[in-house]
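Loading example: each entry is read as four labelled lines plus one structure line.
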Amino acid sequence: MAGPRGVTIAEVAARAGVAASTVSYVLSGKRSISPATARRVMDAVAELGYHPHAGARSLASRRAGVVAMMLPLRDGMHLPVLMQFASGAVTEARRADQDVLLMTADEGPAGLARVAASAIVDGLILMDVEVRDPRVETLRRLGLPSVLIGFPADAEGLTCVDLDFTAAGRVCADYLVERGCRDIALLGASEAVYARRTGFAERVREGFLGGPAGRAHAEVWPCPDDAVSVQRTVKELLVARPELTGLAVHNEPAVGHVMHALADAGKRVGEDFHVVVIGPDEVAERVHPHLPSVLVPAERLAEIAVRHLMRKLDGEDVPDSTLVEPQLTTR
Amino acid sequence: MAGPRGVTIAEVAARAGVAASTVSYVLSGKRSISPATARRVMDAVAELGYHPHAGARSLASRRAGVVAMMLPLRDGMHLPVLMQFASGAVTEARRADQDVLLMTADEGPAGLARVAASAIVDGLILMDVEVRDPRVETLRRLGLPSVLIGFPADAEGLTCVDLDFTAAGRVCADYLVERGCRDIALLGASEAVYARRTGFAERVREGFLGGPAGRAHAEVWPCPDDAVSVQRTVKELLVARPELTGLAVHNEPAVGHVMHALADAGKRVGEDFHVVVIGPDEVAERVHPHLPSVLVPAERLAEIAVRHLMRKLDGEDVPDSTLVEPQLTTR
DNA sequence: TGTCGTTGTCGAAGCGCTTCGACTTTGCAG
DNA sequence: CTGCAAAGTCGAAGCGCTTCGACAACGACA
C-alpha cells in the first residue's frame, strides 16, 4: 500500500482539500479546527494509511517521540527482572505514543552524550544506577530530561525511582517476628553486589535490623552465592546462633542451596523454622516448600519511571524521589 | 557544552573554514577530500562535540540509522534468553553505528506498519517467529528489510535464522547412545509451547528419533511443566520402559522436578542413568549433579541476525536460511 | 599553448514536517 | 448597519542534513 516513498502530509492535505498545515493542526490539536474539516482530514489519513515521517517531525518540532532506556549488562544482574522492566517500559511508553530506544550501559557517559547531541531521543531512563555512577555527572550536564532507577550518592536535582529497600528489610523482619521467631538473620547479597551498590544493600540491612526493635535478636550475614559457600555459611550461622528460627534471604542464586543446607541441618521450613526471600517470584516458587517473598516490582517501577519521564517532557513537575512500598507475598 | 540547540553542521563548517557540504562529505566519505581539509574538519568536529541531528539526517538521506527489534512477551518465553538476545543485538548494532528500537510483539502487524510508514527504522528483527505468524504477511507487504529468528511455515523470500533444532535433538540422542544407553527418551516441551510453534518442537523430535538410527530405542514423551505432572510423567515413563537409561529433557522448568523424580525412583544420574538438557546453562547447573546441555545460543543468533540485516540494508545478498549448529556442553 | 580529465570544493535545492503570522469568515454587541 | 473579536484556515519560512551539478585549479597530454 504505502509506496516506497511513503504517504506525505501533502497528499493527505490534497485528498482532504485543505492545506498541509491544517492537517498538521488536526493531528496535533494545537489549533481549533472545525469538526467538518477534522473529519475529512481524519478520513484521508485513514484511507491513505498516513503516518508522519519521524525524522521530519523531529526536525521541525524538536521532539523525537522516542526515549532511551539504558540497561545494565553486567553479570550478576538478574536477567528476567531486567526483561520485565524493559517490556514494562515499552508498553507504558507506547501508551504515550512514544518509542523506546535500547542502549546498554557499556556505552557509558559517551553514549548519553551521543543520543543527546543527535537529538535522537527526548529523554532517558537509566536502570540500575549505582551509588557512584559516572553517568550521573554527564546526565546533569546534558540537561536531558531523565529518570533513574536507583539512587546515586548525590541525587540532587535528579528524578529517582526505586523499591523502598529499607521497608523491604523491615517487612521481612516483621514477618519472621510475627511467626514467633525471637532470633533471626538476614543472609545478604554476594560480595560483588554489595561492593557495587552499597546503598541498596545497606538499606535492606538497616530495615532488617531496625524492624524487630527489641522483639527479636537480628543479625546480618553476607554470603557468596555458590553452593559450597552457601552450605558453609548456613552451617556456621546455625552453629553461631543455635536458637535461630527465622531467616531472610536476599540473594537469589543462593535460595535453593539455603533450603538444602537447612534440610541437612534438620530444620523443617514452614514448621519450626521460617524463611522469607527478597527476590523474584520464580525463585521463591522453585523450592519446596514455596517461600513467602518480597519482589522487586520491575514492571511497576518501569511504569512509574516512564510516566514521570513523560511528565517531565511536558514540563510538569515530578517528585525527586519515589519509593515503592514492598509487598510481601505469602504462600 | 552542547547548547540547548546543539551543534550544527554549519558551525562545524564555519570553524573548519569550509562549506557544510564538505563537512558532510568528510563524515560520510562519499566524495574524496584532501587530507588537509579532512583533518581540519575532524578537529572541528571533535572540538565542538558535533553529532549530526538524527532527524535531519534521516529526512535528507532516507536512512534512520535505527533498526527495530520486536520481542515476544508471552508467558512461557524464557526471559533470560530474551534478554541475552536483546543485549547481543544492541551490541552488534552499535558496532555498525546503528541504534535499536525496542518493540513488543503485542503491537502486532499494525506496529510493523507504523514503524515502516513513519520511516523511524530502516529494518526489522522479529524474534520468536511462530509457524503461523500474522506478522509475516505484513512484513512481506511492507518490503522493509528484515530478519526473522525462527522459521514461519512459508519462509519464501524471507531471511530466517535459528538454532538447528533437528541437530540439537540428534546431538542429545547421540550423547546418550555414546554413554551406552540402549533405551532413551525425550521429555518434551509443555503443551503450550508445542501448540504454538510446532516447527521448533517437531524438529527436535525428528532429530532425537533419527539420531540413534538403530543403535537404541527412542521415544518422545510430551510433558507439562508443573511439579506434579512431571513426577507423574516420569513415573509412567519408567514403568512403561523399565530398561530406560537415558533421558533428554527439552523443558526448562521441568528439569529440577525430573531430577527429583529420578532420585525418588532410585536412579543415580551420571552413573547408571544419563540425562541431557536442551536449555540454558543455568538450568543445567542449578541441579545436582550438573547436567550436560545444549543451549539456545541467544547472543550468537542475535549477532548473526543483526549482521544479516546490516548487509541487507547495504543491498547485499544474504542466505535465506541460516541454521546455527548446536553445541553440547558436558559438565 | 590549448584541451581535457581529475580532484577537491562549493552553493543550492530539497527531504516532510511544524509553526508563525496573516487573512477570511462569522457572530454578536453597540 | 457598523465595528471588532473569535474561530478557522492558509502560505511561507524554516528545522539540519545530504546530494547533485557546477566550477576552480591543476597536471598531463598532444
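Chain B has three domains: 9-52, 66-158+299-326, 165-294.
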